[in-house]
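Table 4 source record.
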Amino acid sequence: MGCETEPVFEETKTEYQVQTPVAILAFNRPETTERVFTEIAKVKPKKLLIVADGPRPNRHGESQRCAAVRSIIEQVDWDCEVLKNYSDVNLGCKRRVSSGLDWVFGAVDRAIVLEDDVLPHPTFFRFCDELLDRYADDERVGAICGCNFQNGLARSRHSYYFSRYAHVWGWASWSRVWRHYDVGLKLWPLIREEGYLKSLLPDAEMLKYYTDILQDVYEDRIDTWDYQFAFACWINSALAILPQVNLVSNLGFGRGATHTTNPFSKVAGKPTECMTFPLVHPEFVMRHEAADLYTDEEFGLIRRRSNFHQSRYRYYLGKMPSNIKHLAHLIRRQKFFMALREIRSYLRSAIHALKRNL
């Protein structure tokens, strides 16, 4: 499949219709909502689930903006079952999204989820459709995400890789995963005290960052729902699928945002790219450590080298064969024993190859 403006089947060249129910999480931003809904309308889901929060008291004009958002999403002009879950009062990000997704995954066994400021590439929907089918019964996979923060670094020859991070700017999952979700993080004290997070986050900086975040969420100091979803995946050893190209763009940075308030963020409005079909699937389900490390650095969660050395590292890394790239990542992470083991493996393979050719 090429990068046509409209999503199409390569076999028939007809417009692609998404097979999975689509859920949209909406609030008070009619401008971005209209752009997102336009992309949803192109793929004509057979079932659309709308979750909308109510206006905050004493916010001038917010009632009108919330009403405008709902009016936009209700302009369905194709054969579609529309289910609505509207709140008359403002529940806030944490309670509205968590309760709304409880409702979504109680109504359907799988869903593609978009917020009203997350703009998908047309191929995002087919990407989700195919992988929701492929991994439907695979407990090792918890989510299919549209984000890619690798800035053009190709992580493998496959169409996607596996990550510990379930990014929720455009994602899809199953009710079998959502049943583990707990907005109150009741298991967090046990996980924290027993040190279980160390096995997932061996880097001290990362461990401290997420320990502090999860503690704040547990103590209700952050009005959010998404870290709880990451936690649910982590404690069930479920990985997320991330595409080799970026399939969603967050339009919501800046004034009026709840959390993404910095309009100059390097990930604000990140351009989308076309996913090529048929998908090339990995023959395994294993986390891509180097890709996750790069994401950690991109978001400033751990210290990175100077920009000069980082750019030189990326330049030379891009010219290396894949096995040497892997070795470079191990050395960079100071995993010298693993690097030596890899070198020994390479030498053995080379010796065997030479013997065969003698």
